[in-house]
Design a protein that fits this description.
7-stranded mixed sheet; globular; 16 strands; 7-stranded parallel sheet; alpha/beta; about 375 residues
Length: about 375
């Protein structure tokens, strides 16, 4: 592929390496970018083909702008995104390119849609935030459920569940992002608008078992109501904590008070920095074998009657994220995307296109 070029920023990180391999599997040779030249060269030499590298650092935004040319596709895997993600977004907007990232951080997702979306639309850029396991599967499952439900649907609930040892699989960047999220305000889409909320939980039936999820802010809250004008409520729940979910809900309701304590945010950032530094090595990425994922979407009418249910199943979330990012980048580079601004995955690629992309990334209907 020669034009437009695909740039992978954060290539030497956990998700970045997986994404580089997924792009190579599609026959694409991205430009590998990151702040550490030695680590970039080590990564490039470990791959089966020769790839170009470029040093770029979020603390020096000009280094990013120099490598993003007009019309480029930029993939960013540099987290925690709420702290370090914005320079890549701004570079993509300035170049009028397509931006993709692997974030799952609610604060950053909201920032993309509300702060950067209008500027991207004006420049002709497209911003696709949270384009991984967080939160492409839920956008797809909800869209399929809403299509089945028809015009009576006014509410959709989405649940994300994992089986297997994700504690061993979790990257340093993921752990740091999770720490950063602890004191950030959550949100939902209720009564037809984005509202702040903390600590809501509910149970889903998954594989015949009752499993609880904790509400989180996600891209579904912004993207789905634009696609389905009758929606008045969108709820997204993560069920990764098992029996601790309801206790986490109680703790979540206390976070606004904890966040108000002087210095609390600085402490969490310092701990996150230590987590990231402890994970910066060149050891092989742990295998995701034995890890599976389930995503459930349920559509309801105004009276609370369930109209439809869709369940999707896949494997390891990190593998899905890398493959989804690679699929989206190649598709955007070759076929383009449907609209500019901050958009959701269905808006960008259409429901049938996104369904096919998710199948290629390892996610199928149950």
């Amino acid at each position: 592929m020669t034009s437009p070029r695909i740039v992978l920023f954060g290539a030497t990180g956990f998700t970045g390496r997986l994404t580089a391999e997924a792009l190579l599997a599609r026959g694409v040779h991205p430009l590998l970018a990151g702040r550490d030249e030695a680590r970039l060269e080590a990564l490039a030499s470990s791959l089966p083909v020769e790839l170009r590298t470029a040093v770029a650092d979020v603390s020096r935004p000009a280094t990013l702008r120099r490598i993003i040319e007009p019309g480029n596709v930029l993939i960013s895997t540099v987290g925690p995104f709420a702290r370090w993600g914005e320079p890549a977004v701004e570079a993509a907007i300035e170049a009028g390119g397509v931006y993709l990232d692997s974030t799952g951080e609610p604060t950053f997702i909201r920032r993309i849609f509300q702060r950067y979306g209008p500027a991207a639309a004006a420049s002709g850029a497209t911003l696709l935030t949270a384009f991984g396991y967080d939160y492409v599967p839920g956008n797809l499952a909800a869209s399929l459920a809403l299509r089945k439900a028809g015009p009576e649907a006014v509410r959709v609930d989405i649940g994300y569940f994992i089986q297997g040892n994700m504690a061993r699989r979790a990257s340093a960047g993921t752990r740091a992002s999770a720490l950063g999220m602890l004191l950030e305000p959550m949100y939902g889409f209720r009564y037809g608008r984005i509202l702040r909320e903390h600590g809501r939980t509910r149970a889903f039936i998954v594989n015949g078992r009752r499993r609880h999820g904790l509400s989180v802010g996600a891209s579904e809250h912004f993207a789905l109501p634009r696609m389905y004008s009758g929606l008045r409520e969108v709820n997204v729940y993560l069920g990764w904590l098992g029996g601790l979910t309801r206790a986490a809900g109680v703790l979540s309701r206390a976070t606004p008070f904890i966040a108000a304590i002087p210095g609390a945010k600085r402490v969490t950032e310092a701990v996150a920095d230590r987590v990231i530094q402890s994970g910066r090595d060149d050891s092989p990425v742990p295998s995701g074998e034995g890890v599976t994922s389930q995503i459930v979407a349920e559509a309801y009418d105004r009276g609370g009657r369930k109209l439809s249910t869709v369940e999707l199943r896949g494997g390891d979330p990190y593998d899905f994220t890398a493959r989804a990012l690679a699929w989206a980048a190649v598709t955007a580079a070759t076929d383009g995307v449907a609209s500019a601004g901050a958009v959701g995955p269905v808006e960008a690629f259409g429901l049938e296109g996104l369904t096919q992309g998710c199948v290629e990334a390892g996610l199928v209907a149950a």
